[in-house]
Amino acid sequence: MSQEPDRAGPTTRRARILLVDDHPLVRERLAEIINREKDLTLCGEAEDRHQALSAIKTCHPQLVIVDITLKSSDGIELIRDICARWPALLTLVVSMHDESLYAERALRAGARGYITKQEATRSILSAIRRVLAGQIYLNEKISSRILSRLATPARSAVSSPAELLADRELQVFELTGRGLNTRQIAARLHLGVKTIETYRSRIREKLDLKDPEDLLPIAITWTHKK
Q: How far apart are CA 30 and CA 221, in angstroms?
């Protein structure tokens, strides 16, 4: 991996960062980490997609830090929105979710890096600076897994049933595991009830579930193990 860029000098403008996370304590911790750096500054915070898109228009960040799960929205969808509306705006995922399942999805959506909240402060700052420098940030574990997946037949590389699902199917699967019914999921994702039913049918087919009733317990088990 390339070396971390030098920190900016005292006369250099600080890079503006928008933080999107639905946990106030996490935002507070990350804000402290960012604002004590001479070359970085937090220009805004948001807890969901609507607030994030509004904040981008008002605070003009250079980098948006996004969590995977947001209040009433989804981080992967937000990244797609950002890339479609502001192609030059950089995004970095900082999440508590399993990187083996979400990192590749985030990169496909347009994110420039993925790091877990459990990693050290130094690693998070390194990820921020590397993305700001125009590079991709992934730790060695994630990089090795993605390379291994590319070199291995799809089915034999799967370590979790959820890896078989497309992004929208995974959203429906996860929300099912949280106890939401079809109408609630439809409202949450701004989709029709029949569309959600179609996604659930595809999920059952991919997971080889013959009985529709088997989906809920499997989704609950997977969601609580994450």
A: 30
**pLDDT value of position 74:** 85
Residues 101, 168 within the same domain: no
C-alpha–C-alpha distance, residues 85 and 57, integer Å? 11
> Both tokens of residue 181?
């019914």
> Contact at 8 Å (CB) between 75 and 47?
no
23 and 116 together in one domain = yes
pTM assigned to the model: 0.74
How many structural domains compose the chain?
Answer: 2
Let me know if residue 92 belongs to a domain. yes
pLDDT at 110: 95
CB distance 129 to 150 below 8 Å: no
24 inside domain: yes
Given this model, what pLDDT does residue 5 score?
45
> Domain holding 66: CATH number?
3.40.50.2300
Residue 61 Ramachandran class (φ > 0 left, ψ -120 to 50 alpha, else beta): beta
Between residues 143 and 92, the one the model is more confident about = 92
